[in-house]
Design brief:
Blueprint (H helix, E strand, L loop, with lengths): L1 E2 L8 E2 L3 H9 L4 E8 L4 H9 L6 E5 L4 H8 L10 H18 L9 E10 L10 E8 L8 E9 L4 H21 L4 H7 L9 E9 L8 H10 L5 E4 L5 E2 L1 H5 L3 E6 L7 H15 L9 E8 H4 L7 H13 L3 E5 L4 H9 L6 E6 H7 L11 H9 L4 E6 L1 E2 L6 E2 L11 H9 L3 E3 L12 H10 L12 H8 L12
Helix pairs in contact: 1-2, 1-5, 2-5, 12-14
Length: about 475
Amino acid sequence: MAISLKGDQKISSVPTTKSKALRINLNSDIYGTFSEIGAGQETARNFFRSGAASGTIAKAMSAYDKDFSDAIYGVEDDKRYVTQPRLKKMLGHEIDLIEDRLSRQKHPDKLFFSYANTVTTIDFAKKFKGHGWVGIRFQLDPLEGYNEIILHLRFKETDARLQQETLGVLGVNLIYGAFYLNDNPKELVKSFYHNLSNDQLEIDMINFSGPRFMYVDNRLMSLQLLKNGMTNAVMFGPDGNNLLPAQVLYKKNILALRGSFRPVTKVNMDMFEKSKKLFLDEKKVDESKTQIIFEITLSNLTAEGKINERDFLDRAELLCSLGQNVMITSFQQYFKLVEYFSEFTKERMGLAMGVNNLIQIFDEKYYRNLSGGILEAFGKLFYRDLKVYMYPYHDQKSGEYINSENLKVHPRMKELYKFFKNNGRLINIDNIDKDILDIFSRTVLKMIINGEKGWEEMLPEGIPEIIKQKRLFGYSRTKVKK
């Protein structure tokens, strides 16, 4: 079957689901259990149907009843079942059983694995399409520790039976990839959509761990999901591990800062601190229920024609060192970002941006693909109580400081601009440090690459040391000009 995904993946022939399952079944060393909750035993069914399953399947089970499930895997603190902690408990419990019940002396060459999923399919009213967690814990050497791959999916199909079949194919792809594509994680990620399409499911989080994946950067794997068109947004935390956006953003007040952060400068952090204070001063904004996000668009990462993975990791390294959650999205237009956030929360939202970004919002050319044009976009952008916090710009030619009071937009946009400004949707970020307004990331980057002096003073405390120590953004001690 031929498939294609977004990004740089070429159209290619891939093994069928049946042939993948059969190859695993015919491998006498691969042996494990299947534990599936919420959508039938669809993955195990593919292995049974392909033939020779007795050599692979030690046990297949579905603990559908909640009491039975709790008796086997324990009760979660939040009483929920479709969660990552639940999946990890399932994987760990089943591996422990295999190790306990099967003698290594009798099976010295067996590669044990545990596959599990816990999902909820589309509801009867077809309001919630469903989602789930899927994972595998597996060995690649009997004397080696276990590896693990865990992912989160969101169903797109509107029929429960079709969702079950999709889950079954994905499960086979995951198990096959774990054993036969583990030496190439990027290809392994692409293989999740073998015999599937983007219209069937979305994969919005993945994490690799274990001895065979010691050198895999999960942030880079997260980027692959976006690059391949498997999702529109990915997120990772300060520790570098990928996060599930829906979980982080659920019922939260959200303040987002978009930028290139190449590298992060004093201006970026000043905008962060000042907009954060303004946002938290808003009524109904509880700091304990607020999530602040540093967002980079995929188009920004591909500004030079293709994604430079090293450059991406350099940006991520610095933002993570500052303790920030980072989101990479395919949303070039702000209203699409706000729509995405609205899937997970009805609480307050804020966008912090510089003058140049605000001018782009009022540029009609970005909305030509919408039937309602810029008015439709603004309706989606401001349909709830969204605030835009505007960081001023210093016009070096005139010496003027541009904010919402003296900003010039296209004549056709004047009335629209006045409407949103006068309704309190545009908030000036005041009390800024004017001495840092002329700092630009592109200037700092050029200075670092050329070995020029003075760029350190333009960056937040501690950031220059990290750049030098880890040689980020092309920094080289030998280039530094004396």
